[in-house]
């Protein structure tokens, strides 16, 4: 597979390390009253879509950026690649 | 002045040179390295710092720039500075002093080994080592790439002169891989 | 033997004659021959025995689709079984052996299987070798393996090397026949960066096998000229002997280049083969088509071949299997075989055409509406039995029979992603269908358009279209006039009533097997394939799948497209495992990492151990020491008595800087770091988000905004990755920057009561390293040896007064020599990883065996350090009830009640008197060693409620090693439990 790195252009997937669902960016609030339940969901319950899947890839043999890659799990078509840091900021992780 | 003697990554007091066919492979030990990463909110200052250090624009993704003091891109808002060790053994300290808190600076001199390939047909060698498209290199590229499983930087000074900067502890394996590929290709 | 069946003409180099050996006979051939063509020219049709029934077999084809003529090529360590004689290029001195026969090819004892064929029908193994289970390994499998081998391995290491490489192009063209050459000329002259790959040594494809003219030239001359034009284009890379093996995601292709297989041995330093990964923006598949046979009684005798292959052997290689041939066809193409061979002086006994309206013969007899109903000739074809349209049988003498059932487009590569071939009723064959690999266009015969005219035009059209799409102005070359004969074929798959009619010759699958599978309800085509093994040999059924489907469709009363098709998978042709390994063999399997004391340690005769990719000194044997324990005990005792030095460079080091560096460490470590003063080090435990311990190490605060974090050697990479995840994904607006400095510093542990005295000799005097000036857990930037910048950390893994001193890597070699020199007056000892391990067990420090991916801070006896006052990764889930059960495992020490007994790691703990089973398990031993200080074995273990069971006697059991004896639960701190030495 090729991942179209937003800064470096298309790079072979072999340069990356896969982590999994990009929902891992949305780490729950540890101070929430139901933090334990939320963390169990966060840690263990993943969607497993046949189709578009947002997932985290780390460019280990590259610029060490974490990327959010939207990949179709049926066809491997990649429709979007973003720097995870930008996504995290957009999703409200700036504190 | 201390009296300790440095050894080269390959374990000798002098750099190793190998020639095969049109290619010369040279171990380079006379460069100092320091990484410069912008502090949050100080990206512009860090960029300007790198530019002033190398006397040219701070290089963008997968590029390098400068001459005596040169820099190559490592990641977003992060560069590696590269200077002659004889005049810049304290490269990191000097940059840190100039950065004035706009960047995190880390000495990287000992972390890497460097081998320079020069001559004709370098792309024929590199196509047996890495997926980087070295045949398209014209000069100024600085690409991080895996070479036989070792994370390296390829710096293209010109299509006839490319540096491989790799993990120092694997210098022996890297040198072996480079020499094997040169002999295979030429 | 002379070349009795050598014809005139051909593309071989007759100016040179070369010798080769097949079994025990030396023969002559010419450069340009394949092993198969040279054997045929020498009158040899019998080249092997079949897989299951050991039937005599010769070549069916003239290319890589060959199912039958597979041999062992070369001798000694280079012997390669299962090589197709049809693709092995002849070189002077080539040697080959037939396989699957004993004692000889002509007389094969296991040919008895053929007589027993009733027993060996589809599903034979499943039905026969099913009882009892214990017989499988001991009896059945060895028998089957002996009987059904496919050649034999040399059992020696492969002396050749293989490269892996990477290529980039705008356009990859697969196949250099007329379509591929026309595409390459168009794309190349339009300025695209082109790779043209063909498995053959000679570009041209079928142009070299046929007598068609292109314009005023012969096909092969046009191909040669086109090849020359391409060679002059710097943007075109023509790769012959290169098979594109697979089509992968996003325009990536795998290809194998056979660099040296046509040579006796590879030139010095050169690989035998190169496995290329090709990154293409677009691809044109111009892989041509493969002829398919008709199935009939005894259709597998040596001499029975594809009709087009007979033409290829005659036209390209000037060879014929026999001086007298016949042709069995259902299409006009078969007649060309008769014409071409007749033109070469071969006698054409008859053309048997299944079509009642077959064209008239041109100087040979045509039996219209006829079929071949049997053949004879034990080791090679001598006669065929023909049944004509009226049902009359007659016998025709011939030594070869060309068979043509039509042509199948080579769709293999279109299937490697999501393509599903579809049936084209006009040409009675599967053509590319479904979703093709991204960027792939199929042209020419591979797309079911068989004439030379369509090959040339479709190739050029596709390339021009791609050039335009990629932003080039397309330049179309002048293409020659070429034949444009329409396909004339009436489907005919098999002659009915046959008893031994072979569908898949490589796996010995007959038409009867296909019918039997259907009878037994294996009606899905995928089941048919697996039950009969049809198409599952190394040729992937290139010449057999369609006939199998046709017979299946017939017995099921369905059409072929209703039955479906099986898929093709990479690799397109069999590929040596060595090519996939590349240079990663033996010591080069992965890179080796060496520390800066390596050269010195080698001089000392150190024994090294692999830790990840690192080589670390395991112990340093001295003269007279004959057992590793002697060395290790000495290193431990001497360190605890005076001082020892160990290279700890391999621990991961990560530089953490930024205004939020302390807050960041607070996040990644479960214990608190915010208030750690500058100049101090703290132990840190990192949890995974699920609350399980991930790694531990230290963090040294060099400045308010600057820490150096250490990780365990094994986890350096994963911890760095995790820290970047936290930094970029969870805390994107923390001001923190990370970089690995593992290799930037050579780091040595100096441990033992004399550690300070030793270091005072190298640390420059302006730095106070007295116990007051530099207490336990202090750190600082210093200089050594008269001004070399260094870092000093007062941390201890051994439990002794200890420091770690770090110097810039290039001085690491000088530093170890200087330290050992300075320590001579203290009788300093260098110690390796074994002694390090012993001392940390004596001290009760957890390491990888304890941080094993299942244990929590509580298990490790560090439950209290998980800060409740701050958020950190893993903190919330570490508070789960299940991880905090009252009987949770706790880290304890063990010593044998009988002090002479060992305590093996991995042994389990049982309450005395309880049954020895998993239900009563109380815990397990993680680390064990002989303690030279205590004079007996000791161990660390996880024990249920271990913190409350000190002094209890437990049963230690290791059923695997036969150990069972009593141990006593003690504190894990065997040495200096109060930590007085650390602070001395």
UniProtKB/TrEMBL annotation, chain A:
GO terms for molecular function: sarcosine oxidase activity. Pfam families: SoxD (PF04267). GO terms for biological process: tetrahydrofolate metabolic process. Keywords: Oxidoreductase. Signal peptide: none annotated. The keyword DNA-binding does not apply. InterPro entries: SoxD (IPR006279), SoxD_sf (IPR038561). Its EC number is 1.5.3.1. This is Sarcosine oxidase delta subunit. It comes from Roseovarius mucosus DSM 17069.
UniProtKB/TrEMBL annotation, chain B:
One of its GO terms (molecular function) is sarcosine oxidase activity. Its EC number is 1.5.3.1. This is Sarcosine oxidase gamma subunit. SUPFAM superfamilies: Folate-binding domain. InterPro entries: TrmE/GcvT-like (IPR027266). It comes from the Bacteria. Keywords: Oxidoreductase. It comes from Roseovarius mucosus DSM 17069.
From TrEMBL, chain C:
Its EC number is 1.5.3.1. Keywords: Oxidoreductase. The keyword Cytoplasm does not apply. It comes from the Bacteria. One of its GO terms (molecular function) is sarcosine oxidase activity. The keyword Iron does not apply. GO terms for biological process: tetrahydrofolate metabolic process. Residues 890-976 form the Aminomethyltransferase C-terminal domain. Residues 598-870 form the GCVT N-terminal domain. Residues 499-582 form the SoxA A3 domain. It is an enzyme of class 1 (oxidoreductase). InterPro entries: 2Fe-2S-bd_N, BFD-like_2Fe2S-bd_dom_sf, FAD/NAD-bd_sf, GcvT/YgfZ/DmdA, GcvT/YgfZ_C, GcvT_C, GCVT_N, Sarcosine_oxidase_asu. NCBIfam families: soxA. Belongs to the GcvT family. This is Sarcosine oxidase, alpha subunit family, heterotetrameric form. It comes from Roseovarius mucosus DSM 17069.
